[in-house]
Specification:
- 3 copies of one chain form a homotrimer.
- Chain A has about 140 residues and is of the alpha+beta class.
- In chain A, the strands form 2 sheets. A 5-stranded antiparallel β-sheet of chain A has the order 1-8-3-5-6, with no helix packed on it.
- In chain A, β5 and β6 form a beta hairpin.
- Chains A and C meet through β3, α3 and β8 of A and β3, β4, α2 and β5 of C.
Chain lengths: ~140, ~140, ~140
Amino acid sequence: MWLQKTINLRAKPRGFHLITEELTAQLTEIQHMQVGLVHIFIQHTSASLTLNENADPTVRTDMEAHFDQYVPERAPYYEHIDEGDDDMPAHIKASLLGSSVMIPITNGQLALGTWQGIYLGEHRDHGGSRRIVVTIQGE
Amino acid sequence: MWLQKTINLRAKPRGFHLITEELTAQLTEIQHMQVGLVHIFIQHTSASLTLNENADPTVRTDMEAHFDQYVPERAPYYEHIDEGDDDMPAHIKASLLGSSVMIPITNGQLALGTWQGIYLGEHRDHGGSRRIVVTIQGE
Amino acid sequence: MWLQKTINLRAKPRGFHLITEELTAQLTEIQHMQVGLVHIFIQHTSASLTLNENADPTVRTDMEAHFDQYVPERAPYYEHIDEGDDDMPAHIKASLLGSSVMIPITNGQLALGTWQGIYLGEHRDHGGSRRIVVTIQGE
């Protein structure tokens, strides 16, 4: 059984955001599957999807501090600079973190670990709404 | 055809570990599939899965040296510090490297390249056993 | 429905290369699928696949400059040095960026965002032809 839907995430400020609930609220069909896989794909090149700790908000702010340190704005070697200081770092972060996550379905639920949540990495200062394509397969 | 199983990896010291054989020994069902995909997913946020060179052990130790250099302990900007100096770097490494790998099945085998192996990145000093959910689909 | 094929990419110089067209020209079967997933997997440990901006070539050269800066050649801690100065950095870049991408199929097309393209990261000076295994599932 295949299911595919597009989800528009609400616009978020630059940084990492826990979006597990915003997504799963729109994926209630998973409840009826015993086994399967959910592919969550972001159709942008300056935002990313990753899995990380779902409890302490300072993990998200520390992630942002770290990636800002090691993927700096205004690096002397950037030539792609016309779209703002935040643009080229956003592209690099998107490739470092990835454009999709794939999560198993087990007995009607996402088989996330106890501490795992889905993060949106919003790497632009004003990224706006972000479009996600979710493709679910299972039985 | 769907198959899903949970595998508990033996506890390993901090660093990168080649786990291809530990995993495939428990995935003998692949032998009967002509084509398919194996999704290998770790249910933790301070360990990772990646593919890399399966021959020279210094690739693994050099990977550890590199990630320790560029994702340092005790960075001045960390606020998530209550669980130990190794904790926040472990979360960052987990997102940089990823929580899952997906590998094709071809003629009853994982279609890895000659030099490819599956790495566990154990990013905690004492991470303990790690739980993996393997989801296989094929025919 | 399953489809799997091996594609040999033409040899490319070190750096990031947009390969969307080189790949999709050999994946015309996608046109007949309403919904599905394409898994694109590289069978090497010194080259990578990622998604990023498909328009401005300086995004690719800036990516190369960035990864060369933060995954340097001749780092003092490398022990895996017998295969050339470009070898160990290539392994690290491969794990940072990843060995595969998975892209949804929607109405006979890859559901890439407007600005998304498929990048090959060629991390060796003389990597030669690279072998890709594409596994498609859909209906």
